[in-house]
Structure prediction request, 229 residues.
Amino acid sequence: MRRAGKMALGLAMVYAALAYLALPELWWLRDRGLTDRIGSFVTATPQGIAGDPINVGLMGPESEVIRALDAAGWRPADALTLKTAIEIGLSVAFDRPYAEAPVSTLLYDGRRQDLAFEKRDGVSPDRRHHVRFWRAGAAEGGAAPLWLGAASFDRGVGFSHDTGQITHHIGPDVDAERDLLMADLQATGLVAEVSEEPGIGATAAGRNGGGDPYFTDGLIKLAVLAAAR
Prediction:
């Protein structure tokens, strides 16, 4: 039994070294510069791996962004800490609810997300709709802050196709998540108008930081909150 325990511990250490140290570095060497080639409207993992595309935008003060998302039924995600990482792991393993489960860190323009929200699709956060937002400055004339976001659907927990790390896998139709979020926001009556802006461009074979494929028409749907008018 003691020998088996040592072997299990050794295998766990080898897995951790490969998945969290060696393979991310090899991925970066293979695909370095990918984010530059596919355009500026794409996020990246902390290791520099291309992540989810920017596909939504909100214009309005932070307090109104939070208010609108809450009214739309999207809960703010907890910060990612050791405690919340353990909590989400237990909630997924035992199918327990955790409506404010944390999301992983993605970077846009070199910064981690400023806000993150999610909407349940089942009991545990194994499946959920979620969106990250980065404050991108003020709109023209300085009228209101602009928030750029990446919305996608977590369809289950598994291993990254690129690094082997434990992660959520996203559904391929990121446009459907963008449209769901916009529909939920418009239903609140807190949105003045929605427009379509150019994003990464039409992509039939995109791939995020977990190696999951996605497709998109490449547009950003921008919602102007009524409070920003």
